[in-house]
Amino acid sequence: MPLDPKRTVAELKELRALTGDENGAQRVAFTPTWTKARAWLQKRIEVTNGLETHNDAAGNFWATLHGKSDKALLIGGHIDSVPNGGWLDGCLNTLGGVEILRRIHSQYKGKPPVTVRLVDWADEEGARFGKSLLGSSACSGKIDMRETRKLRDKDGVRLVDALKEHGIDFEKVKDSGEELKNAAAYIELHIEQGPVLLDLDLPLGVVLGTFGVERHTITFRGQAAHSGSTPMNRRRDAFLAAAKMSPEIYEIAKRSNGGVCTIGSCTTKPGIVTSVVEECRITLDQRHLDANALQRMLNEAKTASEKFARDGNVDVAWERLWNIEPILFNNELIKFCGEAIADAGAKPHRLPSGPLHDAAEVARAGVPTVMMFVQSLRGISHNKIEDTKEEHLELAVTAFDKLADKAMDWVA
Ligand SMILES: [Zn+2]
């Protein structure tokens, strides 16, 4: 049974029909529709005889094709989606992996030189409880148990209870880490979710790693004053200082060579039409693949905020909301990924990933990792209009299969 990328596209459509509606994909983790998707996946796997399957302590689904060596190549994806999500985010990875498992199983008559495992991570999206990468961060051991234990969904249901309903004891989720015992390489295919490959008119990309992130709130404090009686030269306008940050972060990003900065929120107090702004709070999200460059972007933003505060006679205070270091993928696997794309007849373009992915958690756990991206039409994801040309989906499965072969040889 040779690789059949068209079958992957057909299965993606079948899954869409089974678990989507007119608003898009509805496979939110730990909901009945997700359970249905998982049961459907299990059936797809079962037709390939001799694969051992189980759920681990964190609810990640594993299908294992035991090889001559216990050393394992892992292929990962996530069948969960955001509400009203797209038809490819996550499940392309999983179903592409299923097809590759079938091909390897058939080529080696059920006994490949190394063990090959498919993992469908639980709750990559964090759509219900606000915690992304739940299953993979449990597996990597990096999950923050204290923070995660407290989470509830919008109806007040505790994450801990939702997990229990699916047979998962939250206190034991880190036991899933034993799944990585023999992991020698991890590969993941994903839609790009951005416009870079589209703008270059290229179908496939080699992902170098995931951006490091610095996320802060910046609060400027001046003085509320009557908007009619206060001359312009007497104001301590917190909004004026904060507003100057907006063009500045574009300059900072431009100088950083590849980084991105976003002011995603701005709130003012007292926030009425007749008062100078006393307090202006903005959020800043900065991302870069290079740790030093990320640090430089942060320092530059701090320096700029202090200058704008001085100029406007207001105060400024910073508070870190969250940060993560850049996670770089394995150089050898990056090389194989480029070769696989070239072998499939496309031009390999190297790019970083802005969003985090399960692959980042696996890399953090010390397993050599790489991702392959396939172009997203319109550069849009987490939306029912998310799409990729079918010929690109097929090419992605073909190239990803070649990467799997190269990675297997390497592991062996
Ligand atoms: Zn995804």
Overview of this protein structure:
The protein is an alpha/beta fold and 412 residues long. The chain has helices spanning 5-19, 32-46, 91-107, 134-140, 145-149, 159-165, 196-200, 238-255, 291-311, 331-343, 358-364, 390-411; strands spanning 20-21, 24-25, 52-55, 61-65, 69-77, 114-120, 183-191, 204-210, 212-221, 260-269, 279-288, 315-324, 327-328, 349-353, 369-374. The chain is elongated and about 85 Å long. The model has no long low-confidence stretch (mean pLDDT 97). Zinc ion binds at residues 78, 89-90, 124, 190.
Radius of gyration, taken over Cα atoms and rounded to an integer in Å: 24 Å
Instruction: State the distance separating the first and last CA atoms.
Output: 23 Å
Average per-residue pLDDT, rounded, comes to: 97
Bound molecules: zinc ion
**Strand-residue proportion:** 15-25%
Largest sheet: 9 strands, mixed
Instruction: Please count the beta strands (DSSP E, at least 2 residues each).
Output: 15
- Uncertain ranges: none
Structural class: alpha/beta
Order of helices and strands: HEEHEEEHEHHHEHEEHEEHEEHEHEH
How many helices? The count is: 12
Give the overall silhouette. Answer: elongated
Helix content: 25-40%
Summarize the structure.
This protein is of the alpha/beta class and 412 residues long.
Question: Which features characterize this protein?
Answer:
412 residues, alpha/beta, elongated, binds zinc ion
List the helices and strands and how they pair.
Blueprint: H1 5-19, E1 20-21, E2 24-25, H2 32-46, E3 52-55, E4 61-65, E5 69-77, H3 91-107, E6 114-120, H4 134-140, H5 145-149, H6 159-165, E7 183-191, H7 196-200, E8 204-210, E9 212-221, H8 238-255, E10 260-269, E11 279-288, H9 291-311, E12 315-324, E13 327-328, H10 331-343, E14 349-353, H11 358-364, E15 369-374, H12 390-411
Parallel strand pairs: 5-6, 5-7, 7-15, 8-14
Antiparallel strand pairs: 1-2, 3-4, 4-6, 8-13, 8-15, 9-11, 9-12, 10-11
